[in-house]
Amino acid sequence: MKNSFKLGLYTALSLFTFVSAGSAVAADFAAESYDWTGLYLGVYGGGGAIVDNIEVPPLGGANLNGLGGEGLLGGVLAGYNYQMNNIVFGLQGELGFNDLHSELNVPGLLNIDARQGFVAALSARAGLLLTSDTLAYIIGGYSYSDYKLSSNAFASIKENYDGFHVGGGLETRVGSNTTLRAEYRYTSYSGEDWGAGPLLNIEPSSHTGTVALAYNFGGGSGSNVSAPAVASDGSDWTGLYLGVYGGGGAIVDNIEIPPLAGANLNGLGGEGLLGGLMAGYNYQMDNFVVGLQGEVGFNDLRSELNVPGLLNIDARQGFVAALSARAGWLFTPDAMAYVIGGYSYSDYKLSSNAFSSIKETYDGFHVGGGLEAKVTANTTLRAEYRYASYSGEDWGAGPFLNIEPSSHTGTVGLAYMF
Question: Would you say 303 and 65 are in contact if contact means Cβ atoms under 8 Å apart?
């Protein structure tokens, strides 16, 4: 089985670890609190990347992991929550459209476009209330998607995929019946042969980050509903903080060959885990929080071409660093929605059994956003989605080659505020 199951499992376990950590500091219960039980309807939107693992069994199990693409997505969701003390369980259904696509273009000669389209999902959710208004949750379940291959050289082809998804996020009340959530999700689909029988197997996986707004029917306060008391001691968010982060993501390399009339492949894709350290400073003005943040970490996002016994080529993102500005709005004293952006740096390594390793360094920018909530007076938990785009590099080939990576990552972070 490909590494997608391992990636999904590791992502779910890391999210569950962070959510479970919150339970240790949210053990005090209030006599009355808002009840999350009830139906809800909502909309969501965001972005992400897709990676296609392509296997050719007749060639000794040769595979390319993978062909990558990126784009935007959105849809509608509906679900039901049931609260028991400070735990919330629920079921959720979604319908949407993922415009995640890959494209090979040779101007005037050939264009091939592979595009994910309609998507649907049925999920189970389980969450812990960090405060009466803020929920940290994990999510998982069944996923469905259609996929279309179009070209000026042949008739369009369609294929349908079934699979599973795992992920997690934070959700906070922004009105009496309205919630805002930030979520990262990894989805893995089963293999399909696209009509080629035993000659071909293509297994897509996607990494997406979304923001959702939901209206909750019902709810209210009652003596039979217990939830954690407000986690903070009333102090503001101003001050230094240190933290750790971890998660998963995908990288897409846009490859241009200028001598071939600007031919390009968008792109070569890879996926993996990531983690690191962060430090920053927040300054609060009423409900508005601004700040600066620095990070160092390691992104094990990789693509691989493997022909057993003959050839192996591995392209891997490694060390990363970032300097960011953040701006956020406090919907409650203990929950903040924020946007983030700034400078990104990364190194990249190309290894093979056919040639010596090559390294390249990249500069770029990132933008993203998330939700952050206090779980104690000095500790916060955050869920964040980030898109990073890097400048082009020629890998020593001069005007013959230009490779521009971009990454889509979802992380959970735990920070201590001084």
Answer: yes
Beta bridge partners of 177: none
Alpha carbons 53 and 291: distance in angstroms, whole number: 40
Contacts of 285 (CB under 8 A, 6+ apart): none
pTM as predicted? 0.89
Strand partners, 344: 322, 364
Q: What one-letter code names the amino acid at 369?
A: G
Q: Are 191 and 203 in contact (CB under 8 A)?
A: yes
Listed in sequence order, the residues at least 6 apart from 22 whose beta carbon sits closer than 8 Å to its beta carbon are 128, 130, 136, 375, 381
Nearest to 267, CA basis, from 253, 281, 284? 253
Per-residue pLDDT tens digits of the chain, which is 418 residues long:
345 444 444 444 444 444 444 443 333 333 356 789 999 999 999 999 999 999 999 988 899 988 899 999 999 999 999 999 999 999 999 999 999 999 999 998 899 999 999 999 999 999 999 988 999 999 999 999 999 999 998 999 999 999 999 999 999 999 889 999 999 999 999 999 998 899 999 999 999 999 999 999 976 554 444 444 444 555 689 999 999 999 999 999 999 999 988 899 988 999 999 999 999 999 999 999 999 999 999 999 999 999 998 999 999 999 999 999 999 999 989 999 999 999 999 999 999 999 999 999 999 999 999 999 999 999 999 999 999 999 999 999 999 999 999 999 999 999 999 9
The structure tokens listed for 323 are: 């300097």
- Return the beta strands (E) in 107-219 as ranges: 110-131, 134-151, 157-173, 178-189, 201-216
Distance, CA of 75 to CA of 69 (rounded, Å): 19
CA distances from 199 to 62, 67, 188, 368 (A): 11, 17, 21, 40
User: 200 exposed, middle or buried (CB, 10 Å; 0-12, 13-18, 19+)?
Assistant: middle
Q: Measured between alpha carbons, how far is 72 from 98 in angstroms, rounded to an integer?
A: 6
